[in-house]
Specification:
The complex is a heterodimer of chains A (340) and B (386). Chain A is of the alpha+beta class. Chain A is globular. Chain A has a domain at 178-334: Butyryl-CoA Dehydrogenase, subunit A, domain 3, CATH 1.20.140.10. Chain A has helices at residues 3-19, 22-27, 35-43, 61-73, 80-92, 98-101, 173-212, 224-231, 233-253, 269-294, 297-300, 306-318, 323-334; strands spanning 107-109, 118-122, 130-135, 138-142, 160-163, 167-172, 214-215, 218-219, 259-260, 265-266. In chain B, a hairpin with a 2-residue loop joins strand 2 and strand 3. The chains are: A alpha+beta (340), B alpha+beta (386). The interface between A and B is large, with 47 and 48 residues.
Chain lengths: 340, 386
């Protein structure tokens, strides 16, 4: 990490710790969006950080994964990942509005292709004023008023279906597909970083709990079965972070097509972004699962925070698609000559 | 951590790749599986004369640990015989760290020619993970040491000129404080080697030491301070010296198989959905294994001791390898059971071989449990549980 990146980490680590965290997640229900914290983060200029320097941003994907991990570590109920990705698309299309840069309008991505005129289960569907969507070979900009009402869901996210009504076609054909693919790969990379944050915090919560909780006259963290269940996790968390960082590095360099599968030399961005989402997703499932379990019955109770992390890990790791489907997409990238 | 290798490292890697292309024949590979000895002295010697071996000694010369990692990673990916080399270069690294001038001249310089090997004598029949309890005894008699005892898993003993031998020299003090390390010439009278065949093709040994007499100059490190030498050995070894990408050659063999083998339903196995999912997951495992290892190498390259990070890489790579082997053996059905040389063996027998080899990988070089203890205590800060 460069000195600048250390500084980004420090700033956002304190921001998310002070302004978000489990209390903010609880208080922002049922919408799944902490409006007050979003105003605060907007004051720092963060919603516009992903666009180019002349437009007032300048953060690379490698910088943004740091922000996303810190957001994930505090399960921030803020659409920061979607917003920075969508704002980069809007800039590319010369459609960047000042209100998006300042965070007054929330922007997001319809991560799945539109079907039959409806964008289903959009991660920021309940709150996004601007949505980028792919409908067949057309890239759409959806500018309807958001419903401000979420579909009740496992991860307390601002999920909603959005009908395609007031839309502009902003790109078509190959250009549309390329812009959308790039945006989706950035989204996968940053959501993976958010999941790494969830994983990291879940491990910390478990370790703190097992040091404190006594049974049979000892901290339960002194029992080897508990220790070994936890000892699996830091390597997975670090492995996920390394993979996400590599994807971001590749994305910043716009590396395309470098895949030597049998030599384990892979630097293609789309491939690494897909790998990141699958791996960071599964890692977060395992870490939150173990952490909740070692909290005993309290982990299951609403009062304890681990259940919030547990449910968000599941939500973010499968909101794009079922992980086996993502693996098949990855296989298509890895095995270009033999379609499945 | 940089994802882009330095130009120097890229050059080094292409030199290694070229060397492998020119020198690793299919005879060498089939011979190692036939004999069970994953060591080829002429291959090692060729590596040395190419100038690649000095870079394989951890902490020696101007090669950094990233290049050390690259060398073993390329050998591992190519399926080359590197087990003997890894142990030998590890011992070279230990000598470089704590050896005397005598050790440098008499052993290290010879190891760098590729003509000689070393083996490790830590484990005993009754003490494996609890290695600090070993009982092989070294007694000072006059100016000589007399060694008596037995070691297990002394792989490559039959190829070696020296054994790095952990002995008990003091029973009056706590067990960690009463051990001394020696480099014992294997030609010393009183040493007997018995082969121990394994369920995979590789051979290991038991070694017996009956009134083995060595001069004090063969002692490595201080008397009763063998545990510190062990600490150096473990820190040099974990993660960096191969063993963290075993599923890379496996995947190569599996892909060859899947691309040429019909699926029962239709088409080829490479088009089978479950197969494709598992190939994708294996590719992820291989990337993560590589990144965790590269990180350990980076920490070592920048002056750190990647003990915990090495444990993370070791647990991850070995346990995932076992999982992957299990997937592909099952995918191959009955033909996944057929061995090298058998007609219709899936992936020419490689799947059967990997399935036989995989169980040892979570045992040797520190069991998963020892590595988990390491992470729990030294990384998570949990209380010692033993």
């Amino acid at each position: 990490m460069s000195a600048d990146q250390e500084a980004i980490k420090d700033v956002f680590s304190s921001f998310f710790l002070e302004q978000t965290g489990p209390e903010s997640a609880r208080n922002s229900m049922p919408l799944g969006f902490d409006v007050k914290a979003w105003k605060r983060i907007s004051e720092t200029g963060a919603p516009g950080m992903g666009v180019s320097p002349p437009a007032g941003g300048g953060a690379s994907l490698s910088d943004l994964v740091i922000v996303a991990e810190e957001a994930g570590s505090q399960i921030a109920p803020l659409p920061i990942v979607d917003h920075v990705v969508a704002s980069r698309v809007l800039e590319k299309l010369d459609l960047l509005e000042e209100e998006v840069l300042t965070g007054t309008l929330v922007a997001g991505l319809v991560v799945r292709p539109v079907e039959n005129g409806v964008a289903k289960s959009v991660p920021t569907g309940a709150i996004a004023n601007r949505l980028i969507a792919l409908n067949g070979d057309k890239l759409l900009l959806i500018t309807d008023e958001p419903p401000n009402k979420s579909l009740p869901n496992h991860g307390d996210l601002p999920i909603a279906h959005r009908e395609i009504k007031n839309t502009n076609v902003v790109a078509e054909g190959k250009e549309a597909a390329e812009i959308f693919d790039r945006a989706l790969n950035e989204w996968k990379t940053l959501i993976s970083a958010f999941l790494v944050g969830i994983t990291r915090s879940s491990i910390e919560m478990a370790v703190n709990y097992v040091k404190d909780r006594h049974q049979f006259g000892k901290p339960i963290g002194s029992f080897q079965s508990v220790q070994h269940g936890l000892a699996d996790l830091p390597g997975l968390c670090d492995g996920a972070r390394l993979l996400v960082n590599k994807a971001a590095w590749s994305g910043d360099k716009e590396i395309s097509g470098e895949i030597k599968l049998t030599d384990n030399e892979i630097s293609d961005f789309a491939t690494l972004a897909s790998m990141s989402l699958i791996f960071a997703g599964e890692t977060s499932l395992q870490a939150t699962d173990r952490s909740l379990h070692y909290h005993g019955g309290y982990g299951f109770s609403e009062e304890y925070d681990i259940q919030l992390f547990y449910r968000r890990a599941r939500a973010w790791s499968q909101i794009l698609n079922n992980p086996s489907e993502e693996c098949l997409h990855l296989a298509d990238l890895l095995l270009k000559d033999s379609e499945g | 951590m940089d994802f882009e290798l330095s130009e120097k490292a890229i050059d080094f890697r292409s030199q290694v790749k070229k060397f492998i292309e020119n020198n690793l024949t299919s005879e060498i590979i089939s011979n190692m599986h036939k004999t069970g000895t994953f060591n080829d002295k002429s291959f090692n010697e060729a590596l040395a004369s190419e100038g690649l071996l000095a870079g394989a000694v951890p902490g020696y010369g101007d090669r950094d640990p990233v290049e050390l990692y690259l060398l073993f990673n390329e050998l591992e990916k190519a399926g080359a015989p590197y087990d003997g080399l890894a142990v030998t270069m590890l011992v070279a690294g230990i000598i470089n760290a704590v050896g005397t001038e005598f050790h440098h001249e008499e052993i290290l310089n010879k190891l760098l020619t590729g003509k000689h090997n070393c083996c490790l004598g830590y484990s005993e029949p009754d003490y494996g993970s609890d290695v600090a309890s070993i009982t092989t005894k070294a007694e000072k008699v006059g100016d000589k040491w007399i060694i008596n005892g037995q070691k297990m898993w002394t792989t490559m003993a039959h190829e070696s000129d020296w054994v790095l031998l952990l002995t008990r020299t003091n029973s009056e003090v706590p067990k960690h404080k009463g051990m001394t390390m020696f480099l014992v010439p294997m030609a010393t009278p009183g040493i007997e080697i018995q082969p121990v065949p394994t369920m995979a093709s590789e051979r290991t040994n038991a070694t017996f030491y009956d009134n083995v007499e060595v001069e004090d100059q063969w002692r490595l490190g201080e008397v009763d301070d063998g545990w510190s030498v062990m600490g150096i050995a473990l820190a040099l070894e974990r993660g960096v010296m191969g063993g963290t990408n075993p599923a890379v050659p496996l995947l190569k063999h599996v892909l060859n198989w899947a691309e040429t083998t019909p699926d029962k339903n239709k088409g080829l196995m490479i088009n089978n959905t479950l197969m494709r999912e598992r190939i994708a997951r294996t590719a992820i495992i291989n990337q993560v294994g590589q990144l965790l290892t590269l990180r350990a190498a980076w920490i070592a390259a920048t002056g750190g001791m990647p003990g915990v990070e090495g444990s993370m890489a070791k647990i991850y790579a070995s346990e995932e390898y076992q999982k992957v082997v299990g997937w592909f053996q099952q995918m191959a059905g009955a033909e996944g059971l057929l061995s090298f040389g058998a007609e219709d063996a899936a992936a020419s027998g490689w799947i059967d071989y990997d399935a036989r080899h995989a169980p040892v990988t979570t045992i040797y070089g520190g069991t998963s449990e020892i590595n988990r203890n390491n992470i729990a205590e030294r990384f998570l800060g949990l209380p010692r549980s033993r």
